[in-house]
Design a protein that fits this description.
The protein has about 220 residues and is mostly loops. The chain has 4 helices and 3 strands. The chain has a 3-stranded antiparallel β-sheet, with no helix packed on it. The radius of gyration is 37 Å and the shape is rod-shaped.
């Protein structure tokens, strides 16, 4: 005859008249859930990774467009691919490498030098000659735009000159020589860099000792 002894421990005891036997109780623990997928093994789960196919634990995204830099073909969003910027020597995280007011992608299309503030070296910045009043804004994130400390806005965008020609009107005087204060506007005392003969005396401004006086 067997007797169940009350008050035994968690294992439980079964006793007969002559002896008691201890029985063990087994507790089953569920295995931990598998870790979330991390395709590139950078420590950031795919669900939160801004570049799931490239190892980028820092999650750098220079223009905050949602694509991590290793997966973004244009890190600064200037219209010029990173590979093209590397080839041309411009910055992949600066939309306006030379701070002339023109985005690198636009300069590449115009044919101006995106690493030189003044492509034709006439004394006037490319953006000023193109009639820009504002430079390229800074995008969100670490990428940058035009440095306002270097950029000179055009005071009269309607009077543009050619950033690829030192002497737009071919009068023998460079554009910077005619626009002496370098503000893009023809001010008092300046000859017109868009007119070969400002005073109309049949003598080109570059050879005219008095380019503003037709009588001399």
């Amino acid at each position: 005859m067997a007797l169940a002894v009350a008050g035994g421990d968690a294992a439980g005891q079964i006793c007969t008249v002559l002896s008691c036997t201890t029985t063990a109780t087994t507790t089953t623990t569920a295995p931990p859930p598998p870790p979330p997928p991390d395709t590139d093994r950078d420590g950031v789960p795919d669900a939160r990774d801004n570049c799931t196919n490239a190892h980028n634990p820092d999650q750098a995204d220079s223009d905050l467009d949602g694509q991590g830099d290793p997966c973004d073909r244009d890190d600064d969003g200037d219209g010029l691919s990173d590979s093209a910027e590397e080839f041309l020597g411009s910055s992949r995280t600066d939309r306006d490498t030379d701070d002339d007011g023109l985005a690198d992608g636009i300069e590449e299309r115009l044919g101006t030098n995106l690493r030189r503030f003044d492509t034709d070296r006439d004394g006037l910045g490319d953006g000023l000659e193109a009639g820009l009043r504002r430079g390229v804004p800074d995008p969100p994130g670490a990428a940058t735009g035009t440095d306002r400390r270097r950029f000179a806005p055009d005071r009269d965008p309607l009077t543009r000159t050619n950033p690829l020609r030192r002497d737009t009107d071919a009068d023998g005087a460079t554009d910077g020589r005619e626009d002496r204060n370098r503000n893009g506007r023809r001010d008092r005392g300046e000859s017109d860099p868009r007119r070969r003969d400002t005073d109309g005396d049949a003598v080109p401004d570059g050879r005219d000792r008095f380019p503003l006086d037709a009588r001399r």
